[in-house]
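Table S2 (text version). Query chain:
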Amino acid sequence: MTTRPEDVMQLLADARPGRLDPDGRPDPANYTAQSVTRRRSVPRRLILAGALPMAAAATAVALVLTGGGTDPVPAPPGSPAGPGSPGAAATPGSARELLLVAAAQTDASATATSGRYWVRVQEHGERKEVGRYGIASRLLIERWLASAAGDPNVEVYQNLGAAPVTAADEAAWKADGSPQQWTETGPKGTPPIVRTTAVGPRQVRAIRGLLPMMIAGRQVTAADLAGLPSEPGALKSWLTARLPQHADDDLFYAGRDLVAELPVSAAVRAAAYRMLADLQGVDFLGVVQDRQGRSGMAVAFTRRGDGGWGQQRLIVDPGTGRALAQESWFLGSAATPAGPGTLMSWTVYVRAGFTDEAAPTP
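Corresponding structure-token output:
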């Protein structure tokens, strides 16, 4: 595999949605993500291509990862392993309350800080339109990052197979004869892309050069992450100085990356949660489930793109402060009303943490 998922969201519709609140933004109550108490089917016709977000995990800053000029990285976040389960004692009723609870839980967390490898496992998914229905194209990505000289840093990729996204998509797929593969046009100059329901083999390759680490779509280094402040205001100032537009949506994406994707200390993650709690425009979506059925609570940032409304969601377990998933949703436009919204792409944080096991070999 030669390409990596990029953290972008492309909106391709034409006009303004009909369901707006007075300040011109959609009512977030209409767009709950995978609601535990109520589910709605979504439209099958869309002209939005969701993109797969991706960032890097890494090992402790005191450890120098060797080989191919690989960058040393700071201490990793706590493991988001296990199912999310909002506890009875943690019942936030707003985005701010949820994010502050997550910050407090992060401050109180105790995780292993050493091991032969830092391992991060994520499942990435993207909705693809095929005629009258959508399929989910899914990819599992593992990163094994060594703590000592002599051990290789490796990535493991596995195509998890495609399948209809929703119950409505599944019904349309069955009416279409339940095809087992689909072909789509590739980028100019490349062969067509074949997507299949079959699970592919695990592919292992060495990580060479600097580890790809991004904040809100901009490259950062291990030194950048090691120097991040652990006070919310200072962290916001650091991010604002790096982000081109200094907009709240950029800060939301940056905070999301820090709490969910990047190898930063627990203190920095807690500061990122507190920074998010003070941002304008962060909505509360209540109790939801991620794509693996784990329960959590979601916050979201909604914005209008060139042709329609899109929403980025972060699902958190308030009982542990762990990020469970992030999702990109299309909320529609006047030309393509999307009802409760359509999930276009997602990243599920399966697990992360240290292990003394040997890494897979290429």
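Notes on Table S2: The chain has one domain: 28-353. The CA atoms of residues 67 and 214 lie 21 Å apart.
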